[in-house]
Amino acid sequence: MAKMFCGLDFGTTNSSVALAGEEGVRILELDPVNDNPASLPSLLYMSREGEHIVGRAAANAFIDRNVDREVALEQVDLGIAIDGYVGSEPDKDESYRPPEFDSGRREAVRAHAMVEVNSPGRLFQSLKTAMRYRSHKGTEVFGQQYQIEELTAFILREIKHKVDQAVDENIDTAVFGRPVRFSTDPEEDAVAERRLRTAAGLAGFKNVVFFYEPVAACVEYAVTTDRTQRLMVVDIGGGTCDVCVMEFGGGAETATRLAHSKVLGVAGVTVAGDAIDREIIRAKLFPSFGSRSRYGPSQLPVPQYLFRTIADWQNLYKLNTQETLNWLVAMEMSSTEPTAIRALRCLIQRNYGYPVVREVEQAKKTLSFEQQARIVIEKEAIHIAADLERAEFAHIIEHLAEDMLGSVKEAETQAQINLGDVDYVLTTGGTSLIPALRHMLEDRYGAERLLERDTFTSVATGLAIVSRYV
Ligand SMILES: Nc1ncnc2c1ncn2[C@@H]1O[C@H](COP(=O)(O)OP(=O)(O)OP(=O)(O)O)[C@@H](O)[C@H]1O
Ligand SMILES: [Mg+2]
Predict the structure, then answer these.
(1) What range defines the domain where residue 107 resides?
(2) Chain centroid to CA 290: how far?
């Protein structure tokens, strides 16, 4: 078989792969059980028995096996004294953070870990986001320590397997996408790229070249025309919003066209779909779980860290301790909103965090096509039916939209162009389907200059083209 070139887009939410060869570019089918088989949800489920399930099947396994059941946790003393940490109590999911700041708050503590007594498995989501945290020293899964690179490699290995199968040979060279900024902190950014490279290596990709995701999406479109053009790409995914401005010289041949192209500016922020989901949860669901209630003789407000944990459902299980549950039972009795506090306890105890986030995400997606959506969560003590209209949704995410617009403006400034100098603004990524964000771009560039490219595969296609020609 003729040589094939591989482009791999490991996304915060979805991953996809394209192969470029003599006959052009093709997108691989990565996940036959996903609604869109061309993209593999970047999810990993690890069972107690050592099984690793990725993609849509990972979410299904978690819902089948973990949700609707009580997860009992026990606190065990690890028998180590740690000198100086800052912030929350260390647990098995985080490293014992070295005191990088606030050195006055050093103290010696005994390390405790939460041990799941009977959980059948763990689900990991948005691993790409976690890559940037320098202090992340791995996570313990059923007694074994895993680094984030290893967790990511489970997903990449599955992808590589599909690639090898498709071409019937070992493809160990690939162009990987990367966001313009994994983090606004350059050190964190470097750490994240290094980790992704290590993960790729563990999965069997020996030669990896990184390429900016929005630049790849720009190439995907640019090679379909022969005109001299100045193009902007706005790629808003699950974890990041990435922007680039590029210039292409005329020419019909892909190689010539790429040789006469130039990146004029790039920018990006770590604000996208996941952050939007959290905002909806905060605005529409927190009150149903008692965020505004008060309790006890002094009518104290309910501690807000409980709610931060709900928004970040992957850590919800950490609240599932007898101590917290007893406290919630007591709180319920003296609360101004006992039903809401009972719902909160049910959410924690029965592991409903992930289904709740999925429901919210679904409502968000509905709002891309309908004027109104309803978030309905009916589970034991949880009875939520919250209506969300487009206008209210737009208001909830206004500050996030501002951040995204900030990176669009930054790319323009870097490219030293005026608004009128762009021929087309190409949009891609799931979050770019949100009407409020489209309107934001339409207001700036005019609807006639917006061009929607394939939401989930334009980056991978561009990466494969780059892999072949550059
Ligand atoms: N129809 C829709 N309307 C609004 N948001 C959507 C829609 N479809 C998907 N999304 C959101 O888009 C995000 C996923 O988009 P995408 O697959 O482009 O991201 P990604 O490539 O995995 O992430 P990143 O590029 O940031 O690493 C999710 O947050 C998802 O909820
Ligand atoms: Mg993406």
Answers:
(1) 73-116
(2) 27
